[in-house]
From TrEMBL:
Keywords: Amino-acid transport, Cell inner membrane, Cell membrane, Membrane, Transmembrane, Transmembrane helix, Transport. The keyword Cell inner membrane applies. This is Aromatic amino acid permease. Belongs to the amino acid/polyamine transporter 2 family. Mtr/TnaB/TyrP permease subfamily. InterPro entries: Amino_acid_transport_2, Trp_tyr_transpt. It is a multi-pass membrane protein. The keyword Transport applies. Involved in transporting aromatic amino acids across the cytoplasmic membrane. The chain crosses the membrane at residues 12-33, 39-61, 89-107, 127-144, 151-171, 191-208, 229-252, 289-310, 322-341, 347-367, 387-405. It is found in: Cell inner membrane. PANTHER family: LOW AFFINITY TRYPTOPHAN PERMEASE-RELATED (PTHR46997:SF1). Gene3D superfamilies: Amino acid/polyamine transporter I.
Amino acid sequence: MPFPNKPTLPSSIWGAMIICGTVAGAGMFTLPIVMAGAWYRWSVMMLMLSGFCMLLSGLLFMKVSLRFPPGAGYDTLTQTLTPSWWRKINGLSISFVLGILTYAYISASGPVYQHSINALGININDAEAKGLLTLLVASVVWLGTQGVSRLITLCLAAKLLLFFLLFGGLIHHVDVSLLLRPNSTAAQNRYFPYLLATLPFCLASFGFHGNITGLIHYYQGDERRVRHALVFGILLALVIYLFWLTCTMGNIQRQDFPTIARQGGDIHALIQAMHDRLPQQSLGLLLDIFSHFAVICSFLGVTVGLFDFLADKLGTDNSKRGRAKTALLTFCPPLLASILFPQGFLLAIGYAGLFATIWALFTPAFLAWRAHQHFSGDLPRGKKQWAAIIVVVLFGGINIIAWLGSQWHMIPEF
Ligand SMILES: N[C@@H](Cc1ccccc1)C(=O)O
């Protein structure tokens, strides 16, 4: 739907940053751990394929969303174009994924914060660190959108800057032979069988679809800019992931990864393993600061999404009290779960990958399918749209098979 007047719009670069900010979050920290079995070359290919399919579904969603008034998000689109049972499933999968990601962020960053606060000489335990961090993020979200978006922009800038500073340093320590020929024993020389199990994690790592509506609003419906922002955002995230994989797999031995996974696979364990390899203290410090910003950024983005979604569904008002109620519902269950089950970070990202298939892959394909019938009637469907819908649905189907296969131990685990 056309926007009435279009003053000068922000450059696509800013939109790309917003997308990259959500994409490259905690999921990224699971990648080297779950990809240790398939190792470097296969993992690089899998990342490219996943990035491509997730971008494709994002573009399908964008196309449909542009036909609606500005601000129309998942709920409006599914309400108009899909049967009510699908709308319900879609809504449930969105709240589940955002909730479990909140749990994952709290579980992953709690130990990192505890470590940093202890280093300052203040003694706190894991649960206290998690409570403190959650309270901090919850207060920002409670205060309102303006503050949050400023903080997200700030964290994102810090995250990108620190990332390139850090990896400029780390890349010098990469051992190329470790990347290409990791170990010697014949039994450990198998990589391909482990590839499928990485899929749900790749999918979660490239999730961003809740932000498309906001992006369309930001660019006032200018399709070209939104498209460029999505493409560049995903490309930038892919570059970051490839760098990250190179630096971690080029620094940590393949056989050391299962130990990290057994410790819950959280960021702290991974960073600890890297610390042991780093000769300079400054790089270690940079790594710590980077992980703080990386998680806080997605933590804010995802919890704002969950907060808005819950407020909308439950109809809580926008007063301070109403917002406090929604904030309690957004943050308390994941915090409690994280204190009771602190080791579930990897598992949670896997679940997020499974359930995100519904709203990040199937729903966009379904919407594109129905939108054509709804708006263009008898006109034949373009070949490109056909191809995109098939690729996206196939990718989603394989992801579900991969998740079930590893859950039922039918595909090997490293
Ligand atoms: N991509 C995000 C997770 C996410 C998944 C789905 C939607 C939004 C966010 C991360 O890696 O942390």
